[in-house]
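User: Protein folding is very new to me. Would you mind checking the protein record under this note? It all follows right here:
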Amino acid sequence: MAVLDSKTPQGDIAKQWENYKNNINLVNPANKRNIDVIVVGTGLAGGAAAATLAELGYNVKTFCYQDSPRRAHSIAAQGGINAAKNYQGDGDSIYRLFYDTVKGGDYRSRESNVYRLAEVSANIIDQCVAQGVPFAREYGGLLDNRSFGGVLVSRTFYAKGQTGQQLLLGAYAAMNRQINRGKIQSYTRHEMLDLVIVDGKARGIIARDLISGKIERHAAHAVVIASGGYGNVFFLSTNAMGSNVTASWKIHKKGAYFANPCFTQIHPTCIPVSGDHQSKLTLMSESLRNDGRIWVPKKKEDAIAIREGRLKPTELSEQERDYYLERRYPSFGNLVPRDVASRAAKERCDAGFGVNKTGEAVFLDFASAIERYGKEQAAIHGNNNPSADEIRKLGEEVIANKYGNLFQMYEKIVDENPYKTPMKIYPAVHYTMGGVWVDYNLMTTIPGCYAAGEANFSDHGANRLGASALMQGLADGYFVLPYTIGDYLSQDIRTGKISTDTPEFEAAEKAVVDQIDKLVNNKGKYSVDHYHKKLGKIMWNKCGMARNAKDLADAAVEIRELREDFHKNVLIPGSAQSKNSELEKALRVADFLELGELFAKDALHRNESCGGHFREEYQTEEGEAQRDDENFKYVAAWEYTGDPSKSELHKEELEYKNIELKTRSYK
């Protein structure tokens, strides 16, 4: 078993990044135009990286399976992006953002990467404001902030409930400028299906044109994977239906270690599952927990009456409601981290207090906030004796200004007015903290192959705090990767163009063609979705919010059997030489079926509870996660050996020199 070298710079953590930048090798601007870089994925991490690298002078090729980079899943992020600017004057700092992120990740993050993230966070906001991102502003004109779970300050910058969309449009505009200059070649509706390694270095990819079905070879001096997370291994998740693990999994099978796959985030505020017909779930932004209060009835008979439609939630008095997060975690209340809030909701529903027909939902109620804001607005307008109707009207206007599009979205999906009736929410699979292992340079264990954003594992440990995904994606793309990749590419200034007419490209293309031909000619009897849904049920039931050794061992066996059946009996209509969405899905699900087994293996080996990984055997008397720092204070990085069940474990021991290791508490 190898011990992984994170290549973390030595010295004071507050000076590591600056010292690193001062001592790396650089590429002369005249030489950059002779160097090619491939970027797979054009969300925030990929789009930011592509635009910045092209602006520096490199020749960039970008690949996305969507019809436009604007449709990357980053667009779905709602609530905001963190930065340590301390605009509120409430005690925020780079160190506090660093501390909150490491603590929020349940002490399973790499300190050096997280400190760098906190350090460059303020630059992200300045960059995006310069791009025209319409962040919310307060009365005096300064950018406004709100709070997210797991912190005691307001550091989240936002654009209503459309923050991801606005940030992505900024990155897309920066990309478009470089496309117009000819520095970026944009390949939309293309999917990467393999990595090409020449003389031990990543030198290109094999991609499929999703419109024509043509298999293409693309060469470069370095390859960046920024293709997002793997939450769709659960089938039902908040991810876009096309989100997949294929790019990450293909480089894993070529030698990139896959780290902590079991660290998957369950988001507490999603619209509950309504039936077997669903293909995805809808997230309601965590920002709603700033003003929404989460509760269930105190009495089980009231919960049953609400489920059966005999009682309305608005008919229950304050004394008849259990604001269980406020009760259990008085310091943080409704703004506890996502993993804590999710487990608490599951516990109440499992105990019989769920409030929808399936018993798997809790209330998110804005009545108190509407009344509070209404009275405040009435006072501002000089109305010292407002009526209840006036208070409600003024309060609803404030809520609409802060969260209006989220309320509209909820009402369209559920057909209930959330201003009048509390929202129903339940946890769902969201972000993945696990991903491709990278060192401080964001390089994988394959020289010349990098991973950025959600595709890598590096910053969030066992749990991601809200509003930090956008922060990491843009930090990696705008401010980290352009430095670190330059240090590597400085060795390639005499290499010249990379040829695609080599045995390595030929072998990689043949492997892709053979896999496609085998699937198309399988002539089975079941659809791809048939297998994807079955996989999702195994994952959710046995590898979901709560896990135990027996279920995880069973899951690994069941997934292996399902994978074998998939390759025998899946049916792919149509041909490979044309647009074929079922073939696209089949290639992605084939990778999910392998990842799922590694996921279960990783979760089974980690005999502790931390963050998004909650093992039922390892919990305190109060039902909180019980870490084992003595035995599991490491990154579990898995090497592919030809079979997910036989993957070899490599460890990166985590050191905490700047933050004291202690039991995470939000009480």
The chain has a mean pLDDT of 96. The chain has two domains: 13-263+433-492, 267-429. The radius of gyration is 25 Å. The first strand starts at residue 36 and ends at 40.
